[in-house]
Amino acid sequence: MLEGADGDLEIVLEATVSGEELKLDFTGTAPQHDGNLNCPIAVTRSACYFAIRVLTDPEIPPSAGAYRPIDVVVPEGSLLNATSVAGRPDEAPAVVGGNVETSSRVADVVLAAFGQALGQGTMNNVTLGTEEIVYYETIGGGQGACPDADGPSAVHVTMSNTLNTPIEALELEFPMRVVEYARRRGSGGRGRRRGGDGVVRELEALTQLSYSLITERRRHAPPGAKGGEAGKPGRNLLDGEELPRKAIGKLEPGQRLRIETPGGGGYGPPS
Q1: How many Å apart are CA 123 and CA 161, to the nearest integer?
Q2: What is d(CA 81, CA 74) in angstroms, rounded to the nearest whole number?
Q3: Tell me: the pLDDT tens digits for 50-79?
């Protein structure tokens, strides 16, 4: 489930292995909507290919030959194959959230179809700025556990691989202070193998700043696998008050924006 502004948006997948071929059929997925979580078909395919590489051999070179056995079926006009209205190309659907958040959920759904515990399932997109400066970052979280290892903590999961901005560089270049940057201990799901912990990132504005948040896994926690428990869902807070999953607003000097990212799901029943 994607956490839309007006309710959940369902992603449906039937995965069928036939010999050396794999069919990923997303028929039944929610139709494209008026928000920005729509996904272009190229992004959907990329997320599917990523998940299959994780499930098989990540060292396989990405190529047309490697992906040829994978058939991705997505109905046109659905959330995962959003299209412009016929004859009105100026009314193209918004896809910014689809590129960064829905792509993560597509990878999650494919991994879940093969019995894997899931990681944070969001990039935790944070934008802060003024008319003169803009700062954008994605924040890591917990990865799901696997049969032979706990999930790593405080890492970028699935479709995100942005670098970690050093606190010293951030505070030198932008009018903000990092109040806390830490592992969100205990946020990973319990299990025979425990899910990784998320991250706490708290920023204090030193001047008036506009902010924008595009996040997921605030309502639905990352599930575990084979009896493992779910990781904790994430939270967005402004001076301790809960913010929506997708939000825009202003920070006055001294106000603090706090992001607590989700933990990964556990694997196997807790002992």
Answers
A1: 9
A2: 6
A3: 999 988 888 888 888 889 999 999 999 999
Q: Tell me, what amino acid is at 76?
A: E
Quick check: 124 and 141 in contact, CB under 8 A?
A: yes
Q: 202-223 burial, b for 16+ CB within 10 Å, e for fewer? A: bbbbeeebebebbbbbbebbbb
Could you give the angle at which helices 41-55 and 103-113 cross, rounded to 10 degrees? 40
Q: What are the residues whose beta carbons fall under 8 Å from the beta carbon of 89, sequence distance 6 or more?
A: none
At a CB cut-off of 8 Å and minimum separation 6, what does 113 contact?
Answer: 13, 15
C-alpha–C-alpha distance, residues 48 and 32, integer Å: 19
- List the one residue out of 136, 207, 204, 206 whose CA is nearest residue 165: 136
Confidence check: pLDDT of 88 > 90: no
Query: How far is the C-alpha of 201 from the C-alpha of 213, rounded, in Å?
Result: 13
pTM: 0.92
Tokens encoding 182: 């830490």
Alpha-carbon distance of 8 to 223, in angstroms, equals 16
